[in-house]
Amino acid sequence: MSQSRFAPQVVAPPSDAARPRFASGREAALELRPDQPVYCFRPQVLAADARAFLDAFPGKTAYAVKTNGEPMVLDVLARTGINAFDVASPAEFAAARAAAPEAELLYMHPVKAQSDIRLALERYRIRTTALDHEDEVAKILRIVRALDLDPADLTLFVRIASRGEAAYELSRKFGAAPGHAAELLQRIDGLGIRCGLCFHVGSQVEDVETYARAVAVAAEVREASRVPVVALDVGGGFPAAYATDPRRPVPPMPPLPQIVSGLMAAVEKNGFSGTPLVAEPGRVIVARAFSVIVRVLLKKGQRLYINDGVWSSLSDSWTGKILLPVRHIPDPARRRRAGRDDRIEPFRIYGATCDSVDVLSRPFYLPESVDTGDWIEIGHIGAYSLSLRTRFNGFYPDTFVEVETPFEAGDAPAGFAEPERRGAVEM
Ligand SMILES: *Cc1c(COP(=O)(O)O)cnc(C)c1O
Hints:
The chain is an alpha/beta fold. The protein is built from 12 helices and 17 strands.
């Protein structure tokens, strides 16, 4: 292709070329010797996990942008074949549209500003949204009439309340009770608008029954309303792999295909076999795609002070009480160490800020020999980490490298250590 000075610029993501590449997080840490947190982005892992979801789920996959809306993430997802995005705000409309101009945007926030509804319908030509109250129907209808849209082009999903087990229980904030949901469906149908049903059972849902119960409630609402339902949106919540507590062994997390097949059994049993399905996965797609390399600023006995924390990359593990897998990267410049490398112990983790709540709710399992100046690579932090960073106390990690191999490759991270290598020290 000839490039003249006057040809329109071919816009390649400038950050792509600028990101240094390494085979592993360990290699990045030893070469850069970073004093600030460094995010390791793994585009290959992201593409593989997105493909795995597309293969497992027999419906439309709409990636939940709030989980991680970085352009580098959305670009990889768009190139991997994700062609629908669950968006909740003007900034998310813009981010998804920029990464994937042809993709469908689903505006699944049930409580919206009037001006945002207008922007969605008018400028972004979004035709699918969610609600759980009749006043929201009225807001949407006002814009539909103002823009003179055909109501039949719109699909409104009624969000139903659901109860279940999740690391995060979101069903208490949104959702209409079954009787109310049925009335909403009738009202929407009466306006000539297409009706859908949706739920979002929470995040990190490791129990298939939670989805099955929500599908049963959806069937109850459909029967009570006697309105044609054009789609069932099962939300997000599909779990990602994290570490497990060696002192409290738990049954292994069911793999994604098992969760999806349990969900599909419920779909069939409740008469939704012929209904198009939508899912809004976030965490399960993006968790493994990032790790962060942090430095131990100080070791005080069983406490480690690190240069990241709940106000930067680690708030999700704090609120969700998630045990993160970690890898010790000793500083070779440190000559003398106390403690053994082969004894794994729980360390309490203190964050970078001066705030006393900046302490993780779960320990890191690390070799006894970990010390001041060493690095720790914290794995599987791609979900709800970058998007939840704050500038609190002046700390804002924002350095990225690209890493080719998955976090779990190479020497075993301590969070996945064999039981006999684990110490028995209580915190
Ligand atoms: C946050 C959110 C998701 C994504 O949830 P994950 O647990 O990350 O899969 C999907 N749908 C809705 C409505 C959400 O609010």
